[in-house]
Structure formats: structure tokens, C-alpha cells
Specification:
heterodimer, A: about 600 residues, mainly beta, Methanol Dehydrogenase, Chain A, about 0% helix, B: about 160 residues, mainly alpha, Cytochrome Bc1 Complex, Chain D, domain 2
Chain lengths: ~600, ~160
């Protein structure tokens, strides 16, 4: 048969295929990735664009029409089975949509190619199940059985599995072209983030910051499936930054700095911006005196060779578990009358930061969470916490905010160690110049337990054992918020209190809407300026994933993965969610 | 050949299971297996206490070693039903703190020290998980490879690091 493939009204390819060859969409090229916003009918990249905006230019669904939005179809997925220490697999993925085919993942790494072209139902064309050894991988996943999505490259789908494998799949059939073991669960390394593809380079990073990994970012030549480079986020002996590990016992070797959400990319400077996780052990900073670079930081990295161009650390010698893995959108803005090229970040530590993306210099920072008690503020020149003391190796932030060996239980930490903004992505509307920050609000408690050494450093801790140096306790009810922030000033332009801490992330659209899912199953559209609720539909099971927008045959849709059982730290204090059930569903909405 | 190997492996695993359960009556063995599923999946006790109940730190809180508990089964069951005040150990009795069944106090009297809500368990389920723990964990020393395989099965690499 012959089939014409149209995209945005333009014929982009004409493929002659035999009756036995599946229909083939256009190859995903670097050129298309750079210009993803010019294909608003598709959602080609994890964050919608390399700049990390999660912004759809489609606007048929808008502030006037959204009242008519309704579910048009749903698709049951799998992957909520238990494994390792987890009772359920989780859904945190961002769907990728290309020419009427949607690619989604479940927590155990199965990839589903779903034909959504009819607009009436989703037909699973193929499913790829990586066959993860669930106890093996699931027992060393710190925070759930997660997979945040796939990337497209040429005629392939690039995916990951929790057990550390990276896959190149035939986009038309789901068959494996190659797989590469990138992370090793034998030393508690796992993969959960969606790969970032720059040219022919597939970039992933390792999770495992609560299990004594030494974090890294790894690049694969997607043509061959072979490693191109690996850059450790915790510098080794002799590398710049290693001197910030002052224990004298080489504890940087288990120093954390994990990587579990996809970076943003600036084509102009050919640099990607990767958020880096907490130092390990989380809550015993006396184990690791020094600033502990590059934990709790952002790194600007060259994709060709993995060289670190610059780094900026948000919380030196972090005693809170304020890892900063989440996205770093790239925004050009006038700051104090001057045009600036910024990389911005709504940090888990409760502050919004804007840095100069050429050199990492601090431009501005401002608190965005409701409550913050660990520091009185940020130094206006450096962005360092005001109570950071360069003369000491173990930082003493605000008394009572963190625990220590001398005082093993803190009094109260705000925001809680969950953040602020955890992994859940922001969205940015460049037309309104507003950054939408979905966050966790509230406070919790920390405890320090003196960390023992790993066996390879003369101690007793075996690989795959917890390496947290303490514990958290969440016995106050957390809540959430959605805030619209001016990225050039950090000023909160509008705010909305949410009943539940948000772990789902936002979508912004040119229809001046912001879409957000919640723990109670509500999926809601807000007016982007006022954050007033304009439409809501309850899907009946918790949402922990961000929505996307796409169109088929000129009709706009909103899609979101649904069904995560909420964390006990949410449900334990929210009796009304006690009996909600998990599920594993794709929901699609249209006018 | 592969079929033969699989068949032998199946028979061996069956024999192992038979030996492991020989210590208990068939009824006890069923209750213990039921309790294990509560511990492993339904109440997900292992998330905080670790699969071998040896306790842990981290996101599951500072969870105590149940292998080292000095509590007799009745008091242990009370902690499962009622949780531990002002700690992260959740209660599992649906009616805990609605009356004075737990430590003689109600929700109002406990105030901010109320433990989190865990998965609600029936009396039969609480009995089973306590029996499981007293049969397989409490009073035992460090866990062994055999215990690991007993918990996770053989079709996983999970216990390989414990193999001598």
C-alpha cells in the first residue's frame, strides 16, 4: 500500500512501502528536534522543546473553549505490578507524539506505541517489554518504580529500563535493534529519566543517590550502541571540585550526585544543562565535610565530549536532601534593563534561581515556596545561602532546620526534604513570559544516623544497602501550590493553593491555559494569568505525570498518564485518599 | 535440554520448599506464607524495615530491626495495629484511635503525635504477619542467602550478592 504522511498541513515525506512493511513516519532528525516548536501537532521532545518550556503552540483549546473539553478515549496500560521494595509500579512519563503515534512508558520500562490518529480510540500498535528483573532493580530504586519516557532518533525509539539498560527500538515494530547496559544495579545504579538525544548522541544519567552511587552522565553513540563518554558528577581525584570533599577518606567515591530527569539544551552554545542530585549520605553531612561538588548543582556540559563548562551549586554541604535534578529552562529576558540569556531553576530548596547560561554566574534568586526556614535568604551577589560559612567544612544552616550527630533530630524543615519542587517539571509560556511552578508545600522532620563506611572503604555497608545517614519523617500534612513567576524578577504574579503536594508537573499552552494533574485524580485547566480554575475532570486515580498537547487532522488533544498510587507520605496524612486504587491508564481529552 | 533443566530446577525448588516448610504444620505454613505476602506487598512493611526485617534508614524513616525486637508477639501485634506514637510507624487497625483501643488514647488525645495511617489489615492479616515475622525473622541473627531465596525466589539476581 502507499500512504501519504502529512504534518502540519505540509507533506513531509512520501513513503512507498510494500504490503508487508509497516507505515513509517518521518525520521526524527536533529533539525526537527531543534525546531520542535514548529511542529505543534507533535510533541517530539521530553520537555516539548530543548529549551525546556513544556509549551504547546496549539490554541484551539483555550480559555474560551476549554469548558467544552471532554475525555475522548483512554487506553489501559500495564506496569503497575509490584517488585523489589515497591508495591506498585508508577507512571511519571511524558508521552512523545509524532504524526498520530504516541510513545509512552510504564514504570517497568515497557514502551507502548499507540496509534491515536483516529481521535476516537488508541490502538496499541506494539509493546516492548524489557523484561526487568523486578526484585533486582526495584529493591535499589530509591523512590519508586519509575520511567519518565522515551526519545525519538531517526527511525528509532530510544528507551531505558530501571535495571540500567538503554534500548534502540525499531520505531515501526518495537523490535530491539541494540541494547546497552549503562547502569549496574549490582552497585545500586538504576535509570529512570527519559534519554536526551543531541545529534546522534544519547545522554542518560544514573539514579541511586540514597544507595551510595557516584553519580554520572553517560553518552552513547546511537549509531553503534557504544559508549562515547562518561562524566562523573562527583569529581575524581585531581579533578576540579574534588577538593570540596575534605574527609580525607575518598568518600567522594560514594558521594551521590545522581541524575534522574532530562536536561535542557542550548544549540547556540552547544551546551546542555543537567540538574544534579543530593550528596550521599543524605542526612549525615559530617560524614562528608566540604561543599561536596557537584551535588545539589547544575552542570553545563558539552555534548560531544562530556566536558564540564561550568557548574553552580545551590546548597553546599547539603544536609537536607535538596537534590536539584529537575529541569533548567533556558529563557532570554531583560533583567534590570539588560538582555540576559538565562538558565533558570525552581529549586527543591525553595528558591527560584536565574543564572547566566554562558558562565553560570548568579543573576537573581527569590523564594517561591510558602514556608522556608533553613536560611534567611540568598546572597544577592553569589546566590549562596546567607548563612553559608566558607570558613567551615560542615555547614550550619538555620538552627533546628537540619539534624546533626550532636542533635540527631531536627525541629522542623520547611520546605520539607521533598521540596519545593521535586522532579515534577515546570512549564513556561513565552508569550506571557510566565513560568509555572507546581510544588510541594509544607514541612517535615529529619534524623541523622551516623553513616558507616562501605566495605570497599573499610566499613560494613555492602553495595545495594541504603546509604542515607539518617531518615525523614513526614507526620504533618503536606499540600501543594501552583505559582506563576516572572522569570526576569522571580516575582510571583499569581498563586494557587492545592490540596495535595504536586508530583505531576505542568503543561502550558498558547490557549493561555495551564494543565495540572493531582493526587486525588483531578486533572485541571487553569487560566494562565489568574490561575483561576476553568475546567476539571476527575480521572479517578492519582496523577503523577505531566500532560502534553498534540493534534491529529487539525484537532487538538491533551494527553496525560494516569493512575499512580500515591506515596504513603501523601496518603498517610490525607484520609480521604486512603482507599484510592492504583491503575495504569492513558487519558486523552479533546473538544 | 532446556526443558529438562527447567523441569529439574522446578523439582528442586519444590523439594526445597517442602524441606523449609517441614518445620511447620501445613496450616502454620499457609499462615506464614500469607503473612509474608502482607509483609512484602499488601502492607509493604519491607519498604521501611527491609526484606529481612533488619531495619533501615532513608525514605522509609528510621525503621527498627524486627529481628532484634524484644517485644513478645502480643505487644508486637499491638504495634502493628496501633503504630508507634510520634514516629513514622503507621497504624494498621482501621479503628485505631477512634476509641481507646490503642494505648488507651484517642485521636484527639494524641494530637500531633498520631502515627500515619498504614494499609488497613484485618485481625487475621495482623495475626499472619506477626506469625510470619516470629517464624522467619525475630531472634535470628544476620540474614542468610537461604533466607533471601526463601523471600525472593530463585528467578532473580537479588540474592546473588549474599552467595558465599
Amino acid at each position: 500500500m502507499k500512504k501519504l504522511v502529512f504534518a502540519g498541513g505540509l507533506m513531509i515525506s512520501l513513503l512507498a512501502v510494500s504490503a508487508f512493511t509497516p507505515m513509517r513516519a518521518a525520521d526524527m532528525t536533529f533539525e526537527r528536534a531543534l525546531n520542535a516548536s514548529k511542529e505543534p501537532q507533535n510533541w517530539l521532545l521530553h520537555h516539548g522543546s530543548f529549551e525546556g518550556y513544556r509549551f504547546s503552540r496549539l490554541k484551539d483549546i483555550n480559555t474560551d473553549t476549554v469548558k467544552n473539553l471532554k475525555p475522548v478515549f483512554s487506553v489501559a496500560l500495564g506496569g503497575f505490578e509490584s517488585g523489589g521494595r515497591y508495591k506498585f509500579g508508577n507512571l511519571e512519563g511524558t508521552p512523545i507524539v509524532e504524526d498520530g503515534i504516541m510513545y509512552v512508558t510504564d514504570g517497568w520500562g515497557s514502551v507502548y506505541a499507540i496509534d491515536v490518529s483516529s481521535g476516537k480510540k488508541g490502538v496499541i500498535k506494539w509493546k516492548f517489554d524489557p523484561g526487568v528483573d523486578r526484585p533486582w532493580a526495584g529493591d535499589v530504586a530509591c523512590c519508586g518504580v519509575n520511567n519518565r519516557g522515551v526519545a525519538l532518533w531517526k527511525d528509532r525509539v530510544i528507551s531505558i529500563a530501571l535495571d540500567g539498560r538503554l534500548f534502540s527500538l525499531n520505531k515501526a515494530t518495537g523490535e530491539t535493534v541494540w541494547e546497552r547496559k549503562v547502569a549496574d544495579p549490582a552497585i545500586a545504579e538504576t535509570l529512570t529519566l527519559a534519554p536526551l538525544v543531541i545529534r546522534d548522541i544519547g545522554i542518560v544519567g544514573v539514579a541511586g543517590g540514597e544507595f551510595g552511587v557516584r553519580g554520572w552522565i553517560d553518552a552513547t553513540d546511537l549509531n553503534t550502541g557504544k559508549q562515547l563518554w562518561r562524566t562523573y558528577t562527583i569529581p575524581g581525584a585531581g579533578d576540579p571540585g574534588n577538593e570540596t570533599w575534605k574527609d580525607g577518606k575518598e568518600r567522594w567515591k560514594h558521594g551521590g550526585g545522581s541524575v534522574w530527569e532530562t536536561a535542557t539544551y542550548d544549540a547556540e552554545s552547544d551546551t546542555f544543562y543537567q540538574g544534579i542530585g543530593n550528596a550521599g549520605p543524605d542526612w549525615d553531612p559530617e560524614y562528608r565535610p566540604g561543599d561536596n561538588k557537584w551535588a545539589a548543582s547544575v552542570l553545563a556540559i558539552s555534548p560531544n565530549d562530556g566536558k564540564i563548562r561550568w557548574g553552580y551549586q545551590y546548597t553546599p554541604n547539603d544536609p537536607f536532601d535538596f537534590d536539584e535534578i529537575s529541569e533548567h529552562p533556558l529563557i532570554n529576558a531583560k533583567v534590570n534593563g539588560e538582555d540576559r540569556k538565562l538558565v533558570v531553576h525552581a529549586a527543591r530548596n525553595g528558591f527560584y534561581y536565574a543564572l547566566d547560561r554562558a558562565n553560570g554566574s548568579f543573576v537573581l534568586g527569590k523564594q517561591y515556596v510558602d514556608q522556608l526556614n533553613w536560611t534567611p535568604g540568598l546572597d544577592p551577589k553569589t546566590g549562596r545561602p546567607l548563612n553559608y560559612n566558607p570558613a567551615t567544612d560542615v555547614q550550619e544552616y538555620a538552627p533546628g532546620s537540619h539534624s546533626s550527630r550532636a542533635k540527631p533530630k531536627n525541629e522542623r524543615l520547611c520546605p520539607s526534604h521533598f521540596g519545593g519542587k521535586n522532579w515534577q517539571p515546570t512549564a513556561y509560556n513565552p508569550e506571557l513570559n510566565l513560568l509555572f511552578i507546581p510544588s510541594v508545600e509544607g514541612c517535615n522532620f529529619l534524623e541523622t544516623v551516623e553513616q558507616k563506611d562501605f566495605v570497599d572503604q573499610g566499613g560494613t555497608i555492602q553495595p545495594r544497602e541504603r546509604f542515607a545517614g539518617g531518615a525523614q519523617k513526614t507526620t504533618e500534612r503536606l499540600y501543594g501550590s501552583l505559582k506563576a513567576v516572572d522569570p526576569a524578577t522571580g516575582e510571583i504574579k499569581s498563586r494557587l493553593k492545592l490540596d495535595y503536594p504536586n508530583f505531576a508537573g505542568a503543561l502550558a499552552t498558547a490557549g493561555n491555559l495551564v494543565f495540572l494533574g493531582q493526587a486525588d485524580g483531578s486533572f485541571t485547566a487553569y487560566d494562565a494569568k489568574s490561575l483561576q480554575e476553568l475546567w476539571s475532570f476527575n480521572v479517578g486515580s492519582g496523577i503523577n505525570a505531566p500532560a502534553v498537547s498534540y493534534s491529529v487532522n487539525g484537532k487538538q488533544y491533551i494527553a496525560v498518564l494516569v493512575g499512580s498510587r500515591q506515596s504513603p507520605f501523601v496518603t498517610g496524612m490525607a484520609p480521604e485518599l486512603k482507599n484510592t486504587s492504583t491503575a495504569s491508564m492513558l487519558y486523552v481529552f479533546g473538544l | 535440554m532446556a526443558v529438562l533443566v527447567a523441569a529439574v530446577a522446578f523439582l528442586l525448588s519444590g523439594a526445597d520448599a517442602t524441606r523449609a516448610q517441614a518445620e511447620f504444620s501445613a496450616q502454620d505454613a499457609r499462615a506464614i506464607e500469607f503473612g509474608k505476602e502482607i509483609f512484602k506487598v499488601k502492607a509493604n512493611c519491607q519498604f521501611c524495615h527491609k526484606w529481612d526485617a533488619s531495619g533501615d534508614t532513608g525514605y522509609g524513616g528510621h525503621a527498627l530491626s524486627l529481628r532484634k525486637t524484644a517485644l513478645p508477639p502480643e505487644q508486637f501485634a499491638e504495634v502493628v495495629r496501633c503504630g508507634r506514637l510520634s514516629t513514622g510507624m503507621p497504624f494498621h487497625d482501621r479503628l485505631a484511635y477512634t476509641d481507646k483501643r490503642c494505648f488507651g488514647v484517642t485521636r484527639e488525645e494524641v494530637g500531633k503525635d498520631l502515627p500515619p495511617m498504614g494499609e488497613f489489615l484485618s485481625a487475621r492479616e495482623i495475626d499472619a504477619v506477626v506469625r510470619y515475622l516470629f517464624a522467619k525473622a525475630v531472634g535470628r541473627g544476620a540474614s542468610t542467602y537461604e533466607e533471601c531465596v526463601d523471600f525472593w525466589g530463585k528467578e532473580t539476581r537479588q540474592c546473588e550478592p549474599m552467595k558465599k
